């Protein structure tokens, strides 16, 4: 057998090329994309004698196997032979079916398998077994025996699951990626609508269509067929009923490939009752999920917990579930099309509402555990876990807020996730869920109080003074009335932070000191309590009391280090960096800010990162690098819209930016400053942090220390709300 190499464009079969031995049918339409998969298939067949393509129904296993085999046909002196098994239902006819495909002569009563072994013994050929799912045991036995008898035989199998015999190399076939999926859709659309091309105005709709259909080739081809009567946008808008819309495959195709429902249904029919039940129940999940969640949500009398792992493994083997290695461990997911099919079956059982409640309860418990464990060395793990679970947490929030009886659960969940909304760059989304939760009337004061103080916190960080003040006033009044000491402390703390960003420093100091007293009274030691002390430290720094700021910041840093807390530590580093800069120690300020930025970047904390960038721009200016300072300001300017009002609308925070801009403009000139600003505006958070922490990412510049005087802050700062005393809370 000739040595394999990966297929290139010249390897694609051509209608005029002489065909070698074999029975591969001619391709009736153009094969689109899958270059990487074809190359991988060739490499596997070079080193392995049995390669199995696995994947969901409709993902293109049969077509890829046939096309890949055609490309490799001239590398087998005895050809490539295809055995189509879809229509075969009787396992005892398998040997005969393979023999007929290979044109093995009937030699008068000899066992067919013996004749097959003799026929293949001295041949070099590729045998393609397509659609073996319902005959796995019989196909595995036959393949194993033939491979042992015929050293020149190689087998390419295509099915939902592996054959499971020694020496098998499995190649999972994923749905098509974005560009390939769009190209396939356009090619098939052109075959049904003369002159069809994807115009610029349709590109977004085609991309969304491909995404919604999971890049499943069968679904894309069926959607293209609908263009006989509909526009691309009309097809897209009708996808909510995809199984009714995507019907009418071409005549001559396999019956199970004529509609999306029957293609997925073919996989469903081959599942055991337990596998079908779990498939249906798993449809309540969104995005990825882990085994622990499945065991809690999906178990019951019909599916005991001790059986779940085995059933999950079978669904993975049959390509119903996709297993993925992630930063948070092994997780599973379903394609949307597979999930939709399972959801229909779950609805038919009448069990949807119960499963959705169990799903909600699991994620309520998960959020509670993560909040309790946030103040610990496991913060990074918790942030990654919540990020991975966000699609399911959104489903749990929707489920809770959809029922008047469960409003309090939605309020509780939206408030419990405060550490994610604030600490991981999700202020806008957090505000969305909190506002929705508080629009509803619940009958649990404690849940509403939690949503209120978190709303006040998020709104203040976004620069929404009115929204923050309204939520915090209601929280404070209700907490005092109901005797909820914790909520009263939270409200006082966040009202103090609001006074800080509204430039009412004396009031901020009074409120924050009061909050710290209350935290001590109730024994609160948490990230929240430490952040109150850092807000007080920042108040001291703005009032030109750097010694107090350093003392308060160092105390927080020590507690963070003792408890392995990293997120609050980053803010402590920022406060200490500000104090160092204000005292003329730019080198220490830079070191602290670089540590802070590294932590903020790891959590995705946009607020912490953008504050650090603003201060680092000033530090960089003091090192004589005016252009780089302007670049950092530009990068900060790109991030602020994702956070809220730039620098909270606060004059004390904004003075840092204004001072840097004024001096950088003077040194560079307006045109050079604006150019540098635009350069920074093209950098996302990843790029700008890499630029700072790995200076090779930016042009070198000689550093020299230039004293930049901090802005004077001893004069009274007028608050935007001073006339009405709005920050008094």
Commentary on this structure:
- It is built from 33 helices and seven strands.
- It has 729 residues and is mainly α.
- The chain has helices at residues 35-47, 61-71, 94-101, 112-120, 136-149, 178-192, 203-212, 217-225, 232-237, 242-245, 260-269, 273-282, 291-298, 305-317, 336-349, 352-372, 379-401, 407-416, 418-423, 427-439, 445-461, 465-482, 485-501, 505-521, 527-542, 546-563, 567-582, 586-603, 606-622, 626-643, 651-668, 670-681, 685-693, and strands at 50-54, 80-84, 125-130, 153-159, 168-172, 322-326, 329-333.
- The relative contact order is 0.05.
- Strand 3 (125-130), helix 5 and strand 4 form a beta-alpha-beta unit.
Task: Compose a concise summary of this entry.
This protein has 729 residues and is mainly alpha-helical.
What are the SSEs and their pairings?
Layout: H1 35-47, E1 50-54, H2 61-71, E2 80-84, H3 94-101, H4 112-120, E3 125-130, H5 136-149, E4 153-159, E5 168-172, H6 178-192, H7 203-212, H8 217-225, H9 232-237, H10 242-245, H11 260-269, H12 273-282, H13 291-298, H14 305-317, E6 322-326, E7 329-333, H15 336-349, H16 352-372, H17 379-401, H18 407-416, H19 418-423, H20 427-439, H21 445-461, H22 465-482, H23 485-501, H24 505-521, H25 527-542, H26 546-563, H27 567-582, H28 586-603, H29 606-622, H30 626-643, H31 651-668, H32 670-681, H33 685-693
Parallel strand pairs: 1-4, 1-5, 2-3, 3-4
Antiparallel strand pairs: 6-7
Helix pairs in contact: 3-4, 4-5, 6-7, 6-8, 12-14, 12-15, 13-14, 13-16, 16-17, 17-18, 18-20, 18-21, 20-21, 21-22, 21-23, 22-23, 23-24, 23-25, 24-25, 25-26, 25-27, 26-27, 27-28, 27-29, 28-29, 28-33, 29-30, 29-31, 30-31, 30-32, 31-32
